[in-house]
Design a protein that fits this description.
Blueprint: E1 8-12, H1 17-28, E2 32-37, H2 40-50, E3 54-58, H3 64-77, E4 83-86, H4 101-122, E5 132-137, H5 153-173, E6 178-185, H6 191-199, H7 203-210, H8 220-231, E7 242-245
Parallel strand pairs: 1-2, 1-4, 2-3, 4-5, 5-6, 6-7
Helix pairs in contact: 1-8, 3-4, 4-5
Length: 252
Amino acid sequence: MGRFEGKVAVVTGAGQGVGYACAKKFIEEGATVIGIGRTEAKLTKAAGELGGNYIPYTMDVGIEDDWKKLVEFIKENYTEIDYLVNNAAVILQKDILTISYEEFKSTVNINLDSVFLGMKLGYEVLKKGCYSAIVNVSSIGGIKAGPDTGNDAGYNASKAGVRNLTKHAAFVFAPDKIRVNSVHPGGIKTQMLVDYLAAYPEIEKQLAANNPLAPHYSEPEEVAECILFLCDPASKAVTGTELVCDCGNLAI
């Protein structure tokens, strides 16, 4: 029997990358995953690969009404959920002088507003009294700024907001035994990173200098394992904190 046999998890940004890897590992451990995303085709493809325990659900995580509809869907089909993983995010790699106000607001909406809405509205259907868990995917860019964090004004601001909003919710939800933590990855080997390194091979040296632990970036599956650890009953005493998986970036 898997660690999450019979459990129900909601994962946003579940059509690709870390969200997909997280959904896959949850399902391998016996859970049902409601995979959230804006692009129906990606979710449909993921459902075809991961099987019947992956429930594709198309919505915009930055829209309050979409979250309200999701809560009703959960109540009608599952009654409650055990885990909420707020993973969906964007990064434009624009500093404060180049990003427009509209771009800044859009980034904050997707990266931070979505976490606020997910926790506030998802609270209604999260199981109480049994150490259920919320995991918010932030970034080392929520702890520090600079070129090795994407150097993006909206991303740095929103991911820092996710970090402290996590701590706030952990305190508020603690009487219900709902744990709330954040995960802070560094570089992740997505297709975007692979393409970027192919185009700019000199960046490999900078990556190694900033992230001393080889191979100097994380696989999506490795970040997913950190997320699942924070959902596992083995971490029942862990709440209101951040788990950093950055190959040593913050150590230097």
